[in-house]
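Appendix B, record 7
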Amino acid sequence: MEQAQTQKSGSTKPQAEICDIYDVYGNRTGKTFVRGEPLSDGQYVMVVDVWIVNSRDEILIQKRSELKKDLPGTWATHSGCVLAGESAQQACIREPMEEIGIRILPSQIHKLNRKLRGKLLSENFVVEQDFDAAKAVLQEEEVSQIKWVTVSQLKQMASRREFYRYPEFFDVVRFLEQRRKRTSAHKTPKE
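C-alpha cells (predicted):
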C-alpha cells in the first residue's frame, strides 16, 4: 500500500456550480440551478461517485478537507455534481482530475449502477488504474489526503465511521471479485 499523499494545489473549481435538474428517471428537465439551492418535489441533481481501483484490488480513497461543509475530515471516494450540459462519464473524468490530478481515460471507466439517495441521482463508476499517489496534486478546499486501501481495511474504516457508508460499496466489492475470477480464468495453466 502506498503512503497517504498530502501535496496541495491551488483552487481550480468554480465558486458557483450550475447543474442540470433531472427527473427521477435521470432525464434532464431543461432547467438548471446553482448547487446548494433547494430543489422542488420531483427535481433531482445528478452526482458521480468514482471508485478508482488498482491491479492489486486496492481502492483509492480521499480524506475530505476540513473546509468542507458536509462530512469534513471523513474518508470517502471521489465524487461530485454533474455540471450543466455535462454527461455523467465526463464528470467521472473531470472530478478526480480537479480533486487529485489523476487523468482518466474513457476506456478505464466501467458503469457500476445508479442509486437514488434523497434528491441525488448517484451515477456510480469503477475506474481501473494504477495511480502513483505520490504524484497527486490535491485541491486543498476539497481533499486533504489520499491513500490506497484494501477492501478489508475499507470495511474496518466504515465500521468505525471513518469512511462514508456508500450504498454501492458492496457492488464495488462484487466488481473486484468478478474481475479476479475473469483474470484467473484467462490464465493458462503451465504444461
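Remarks on this record: Residues 50 and 125 are 5 Å apart (CA to CA). The mean pLDDT is 90.
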